[in-house]
Design brief:
Strand content: under 5%
Shape: elongated
Distance between the termini: 195 Å
Largest sheet: none
Length: 228
Amino acid sequence: MAERRHRNPFARSPRRQRNERVSLDVPRESRRQLLSRPDVDPDAFGRASEGFARFMGTGRFLVYMTAFVAVWLAWNTFMPPSLQFDPKTLNYTLLTLMLSLQASYAAPLILLAQNRQDDRDRVLNEQDRARDERALADTEYLTREVAALRTALGDVATRDFVRSELRSLLEELVADEERPAAKRKGGKKRKRVEDVAEDGSEGPGTADPLAGDGPASPALPAAHAPRG
């Protein structure tokens, strides 16, 4: 009693010390289970459930199911009682149990197939959203580029402007070529007239500037003097 009375209330129990000594960086030992869990491939099971749900949603399944139930009811109704395995007197209990079992398995399989389809649709929607965002970004980028090109093309010479400039330049070149030719022709004529004038001043008569290099014309007779 004295030991219990003087025991430190803050002392750690051996179990607590053992739990605290476990380090987090040491992997925990795996315990062997009494019953091993079945290893089921979720993808294979999902594909099987989708195939079952897809088959149940077809007209072939309805025809097969209707024929099966009709044969079952006909056999257990019109055959002798010794050959009936689900008699009418028991209200077709076995058929009811079979249909209930089928419905109990069909509902989860259909839900599983629907969940897989929802996951697939979600992934497709995310991909479509990402594709739309990329297309929107590309469209905005192309719009900005087109606007920049329009702005840059405002300072670029157009085809009509270049043609008009070339035409005016050609006219200036033609005018520059014709002007020296006219100057040379006028200088030749002026020099020829001066030569003819010099030749005429040396002769007895007045030289005709239009006569060229021919003989000078004789002097004109003096006019009659006026009467006094």
